[in-house]
Amino acid sequence: MRKRLRLRRDASMTLLLGASLGLLLYTQRDGAAPTTSLSPAPGLATQRPTPGPRKFQAPDVAPPAYEGDTPVPPTPPGPFDFGRYLRAKDQRRFALLINQPHKCRGPQPDLLIAVKSVAADFERRQAVRQTWGAEGRVQGALVRRVFLLGVPRAAGTDRGDSEGPSTPTHWRALLRAESLVYGDILLWAFDDTFFNLTLKEIHFLNWASAFCPEARFIFKGDADVFVHLGNLLEFLAPRDPTQDLLAGDVIVQARPIRARASKYYIPEAVYGLPAYPAYAGGGGFVLSRATLRRLAAACAQVELFPIDDVFLGMCLQRLRLTPEPHSAFRTFGISQPSAAPHLRTFDPCFYRELVLVHGLSASDIWLMWHLLHRPHGPVCAHPQPVAAVPFQWSS
Ligand SMILES: *[C@@H]1O[C@H](CO)[C@@H](O)[C@H](O)[C@H]1NC(C)=O
């Protein structure tokens, strides 16, 4: 009886949280209007290494045009103030406002999932919680999850001084409540902006080294990805967590963008070399326990760089570690989530061979997960599997 009461209370709490966040989202829609169209890569003319024989061919069409419902950290309008960035660069330690100190107590997780999120994106966090990011045992592996957040910039406040007086304090209260219910929120005291994602990166690496050092593997990704956890776990099963591993969608020889108008503009004074070190696209990558420790230490030695994936590449370079390309990680350039682009339908048969697909809405994530997890397996929209031969991990 009491249990049922508690359950009911939990349910109404969730409902309440969802409703209030939804309302907030709605009211802030026009004011905040965070930039949606993250162009895929910070570099021009990127080249992808071709990792071995391709086992399947993805359809080559334009990325899906989802309605602008992808809240990403807002970018400051107008040119990026590098002078200011460089002056503030030495401040790279911010307080942890909401912690999950017991996340990895007890049996050590086989996989810790860390998802970059922003406060307003409650809906996608819910989708991730209920689908690929669910905690517990998956194919025998113990999975734990955290979301990584900074302090939301107030909608409609004047840019410039970041501590705008109208920063809504209720965000903090809502996140605290969410943390109480789900136990998966990590909130740091820096502004949650696009150019502060590097801070998120280093704070997470430090947090995981301190609070979850025994997790065998760590997956870090965006909230708008779909991860085929079964495939990921299969990929990791033969790996040794005490050996170095960082695998994902590896981008090599990306050239810094020198056009001032670009969001990814990097002046030569900030980065003089003609190409960035190899890095894994930030949509999602996986690393071993050994690499986590070394990476956290290496990044502490690297000067902050405003593009987080490239920054991580710089840390890897310092370790002389080459990220491992894997063709099933599609952090961008995945086309329609369907093998029949003109139909605009989901084809789970396409997804079942991948580890990660980028650029999905909350409902896409939910739908794809449920299509893939039907009791008798996915119903394929086309009679032939995408791959002519059964997909196998080439490692
Ligand atoms: C990063 O966060 C800090 C602390 O909140 C803030 O002062 C700074 O302006 C932010 N930097 C960028 C580039 O948004």
Could you provide a short overview of the structure?
Helices cover 30% and strands 17% of the residues. It has 395 residues and is an alpha/beta fold. Strands 2, 3, 4, 5, 6, 7, 9, 11 and 12 form a 9-stranded mixed beta sheet that branches.
Q: Which terms would index this structure?
A:
Spore Coat Polysaccharide Biosynthesis Protein SpsA, Chain A, membrane, three-stranded mixed beta sheet, nine-stranded mixed beta sheet, 395 residues, binds 2-acetamido-2-deoxy-beta-D-glucopyranose, golgi apparatus, transferase, 10 helices, transmembrane, transmembrane helix, disordered C terminus
Q: Helix fraction?
A: 25-40%
Strand % is 15-25%
**Distinct ligands:** 2-acetamido-2-deoxy-beta-D-glucopyranose
* SS element count, helices: 10
The CATH class assignment of the domain at 82-328 is Alpha Beta
How many beta-strand elements?
Answer: 14
Low-pLDDT runs: 27-41, 44-70, 155-166, 331-345, 383-395
What gross morphology would you assign? globular
- Biggest sheet: strands, sense, closure? 9 strands, mixed
Separation of termini?
Answer: 52 Å
Structural class designation: alpha/beta
CATH architecture of the domain at 82-328: Alpha-Beta Complex
Order of helices and strands: HEHEEHEEHEHEEHEEEHHEEHEH
What is the CATH fold-level name of the domain at 82-328?
Spore Coat Polysaccharide Biosynthesis Protein SpsA, Chain A
Nearest-angstrom radius of gyration?
21 Å
Mean pLDDT: 76
